[in-house]
Amino acid sequence: MEKYKNDISILIRAIAFASEKHSSQRRKDAEESPYINHPIALVDVLANEGNVTDIETLCAAALHDTIEDTATTADELKSIFGEKITSIVLELTDDKSLPKHVRKEKQIEHAPHCSPEAKLVKLADKICNLRNIITAPPADWSAERKQEYFDWAARVTDGLRGNNQKLDSIFETLYK
Description:
176 residues, 0% strand
């Protein structure tokens, strides 16, 4: 693992790394907004709404989709960010070789067994996704498809609750 001067320097490095890895990716909203906005939003939700200060959790939030959605490997993350951050990211990484419906079911099954850090990141991920569906949904999603996502996200978060009352409350408010 690289040596970092302080918590801020490793968090900035994680955001910069994620930005580089996701640089060519776009969200599925009508404006095709830059994908990096999503991981940064997770960090923001955790730090500023959930009062999460654990640097490994915040770094994992920034990096949560790098293995799943880019050419990043676990070994690469481990060499730069260490074992703990990498292990959190791996907990959040879907196996893309599986069909989508299987991956979605596995998220529901796996959620209660995640580490407290991964639970916080996954909850922030669902919060950010619900907010995006409300304000800038994928261009081709019907109202029914949006509701299906909300209902599935609620099933996932059932296994995540209890680590952060503020984040639990935010999710509940969005879901209603």
